[in-house]
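Chapter review: from sequence to fold.
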Amino acid sequence: MKLFVPSPGHINSMKELLKENDKIYSLFMAGSPDYIGTGRSNLASPELEEIAGQVEYAHKKGVKVEMVLNSSCMGGRQLTPEGYRTNHWYIEKLVELGADSIVAADPYLIETMARDFDIEVVTSVLAFVDSPQKAEFFENLGTDSIVVDSNVNRHFDVLEAIRDSVDCELRLLVNEGCLYRCPFRYAHFNFFSHAFGPEPRPNVLDDYYYYKCLELRIANPELIIKSPFIRPEDLEHYKEITDVFKIGGRTHFVDWILNCVNAYHNESYEGNLMDLQDCPRDLKDLFYIPNKSLDRVLEQQWMNCKKVCGKCGYCHRLAKKVTQVYEKGGTELETLMPWENYTVKT
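The token string follows.
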């Protein structure tokens, strides 16, 4: 099994992640937002000199480094002469300093990198590859690897069709934790691409999409259960599809990342499912969902589910059965109560 693991982007966090750790195949991180944005905010924005030092350190530890340039929207800048020169120069520098792979979402950027550079090219989860036809398209552009749209993580017929349609590597994002078929997904990642990308950056007051997502789940934690995460215990069911798994969470701190690495490496986790979810992190202090309470749910229900929730109701019943709520914000001294007895305070 190959685990691709997030790094916040500074050397101290990388050293902590790689200290006595033989579970990590590759670290991935963002570079400077001054050139190409990404689909996340950044805890750190390393410049080329800092990236070079981190690549050198990781390689000494036998770990690969992947750079994330997966802006879902570059405002057309990539198609201008100036944008082409800037992007080309930056990618060339990343190749020169020894980065092992680069993740991108824009088809033009993927084709450009595959044609002009000697580096592994990865199609981001933000390219939304959710069918064999899309997978074939990106493979024909030259991609070496595809991070499959997490929305189809529980659609095994689709995953198998994608696997059969391409020869390139497939990766699965295991813990993103976003809403299933999220209606905010495209707009939210476009927002991130501009808010944490090259200047000019919008001076926004708040992240509507994030807080709306929180609001919906607080009112209805059934949406957490429906989220297409892959539990550590369920990795075995995906190994006919791929043995390459990506842990999301490069905006988290090192202790959180290492907890996820250990869980997925061991393919088991005793504790709160919310501890492993990249987004939205705030809910782990409200909800407690025993991870082990979902044992065998994948094979008994989700692997063959038709996803017609209005006629099914399985996840609603499951959420009522397993979801507990911290009454006072998740402190160690308080007790848990069943979700169905909890009243949302407005």
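Two observations follow directly from the output. The first strand starts at residue 2 and ends at 6. The mean pLDDT is 94.
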